[in-house]
Specification:
- This protein has 257 residues and is an alpha/beta fold.
- It has helices at 3-7, 74-84, 103-115, 129-135, 156-175, 192-205, 227-237, 250-254, and strands at residues 22-32, 42-48, 70-73, 91-95, 119-122, 141-146, 181-186, 213-218, 245-246.
- The chain has a single domain (21-254), classed as Alpha-Beta Barrel (TIM Barrel).
- The chain contains 8 helices and 9 strands.
- A 9-stranded mixed sheet has the order 3-1-2-4-5-6-7-8-9.
- Bound molecules: iron/sulfur cluster.
């Protein structure tokens, strides 16, 4: 993927009216949040189809192709959300695929969810900080995800640009006082020196008081990290942030979707 492709063409970001907005949707369902700092909460997932990244351990590979899912008018998706929204739902999770690939749709749907009195949550790979900045005002809870090199999310030549965007997203969320939490997926192939460098970069931008958590998420059934390696990642963060947690994907353990 080229840097140009990651940044997306300018004409795609022109303002469209609500009636013009189309959503390429993979699925909508309600389950128990299985990842991150808000795991265990009853959550509606709005999975947008299409992702410009290609993490080798991706567990929603069916939602990666840009022509996957089905295209609906935003108003139709709002009806689907209203039908699916259960009592006591803690948040609506805009996920993917990559939600920022359809940032105008996310803004439109997030406004609708908030009008219904439910919190909005963005589950993004933070690959495009300009789009992130546009969506953020409509999001109540946000996670900033950092991809380690072994995830193979982008080609080597684009890795520095991805990291730059991730760090910019972190700064934007902190400046907006969103108190984001940070998540990094680690495998047994994740380089501890690269990981330590990332931690230093993160805490050059963040401080313990303006983040809501730091989650180390081990890969599941693919190159799983052994305990000694998890300790090494944990130990790299602890001097900066003692509330670090290692949290596996809960939904896979309890057999939820
Ligand atoms: S960014 Fe997310 S959806 Fe895209 S390939 Fe990686 S894990 Fe899959």
């Amino acid at each position: 993927m080229t840097e140009r492709a990651m940044q997306q063409p300018e004409e795609q970001s022109r303002k469209r009216s609500a009636t013009e907005i189309m959503v390429r949707l993979s699925e909508i369902f309600t389950s128990i949040e299985g990842e991150g700092a808000f795991f265990g909460t009853k959550t509606m997932f709005v999975r947008l189809a299409g992702c410009p990244l290609k993490c080798h351990w991706c567990d929603t590979s069916y939602a990666i192709p840009m022509d996957s899912g089905n295209v609906h008018a935003a108003d139709k998706v709002k009806e689907m959300i209203s039908r699916e929204l259960q009592e006591n739902t803690f948040k609506v999770n805009f996920t993917g695929g990559e939600p920022l690939a359809q940032h105008e749709a996310v803004i439109e749907l997030a406004k609708f969810v908030r009008e219904k009195g439910t919190k909005t949550y963005l589950e993004s790979a933070c690959y495009d900080s300009r789009r992130f900045a546009k969506v953020l005002p409509h999001i109540d809870i946000c996670k900033i995800e950092f991809k380690m090199r072994d995830a193979k999310a982008v080609d080597d030549s684009n890795y520095d640009n991805l990291r730059k965007n991730e760090l910019e997203c972190l700064k934007i969320a902190i400046d907006a006082e969103k108190k984001p939490y940070i998540k990094v997926v680690v495998s047994n192939s994740t380089d501890i020196h690269d990981f330590s460098d990332l931690v230093k970069q993160i805490f050059a931008v963040a401080s313990p008081r303006n983040i809501a958590g730091f989650i180390i998420q081990p890969t599941h059934k693919i190159d799983e990290p052994v305990l000694e390696r998890l300790f090494a990642f944990y130990d790299a963060i602890y001097p900066f942030y003692s509330e670090v947690r290692v949290i596996p994907q809960l939904h896979k353990i309890i057999g939820a979707r």
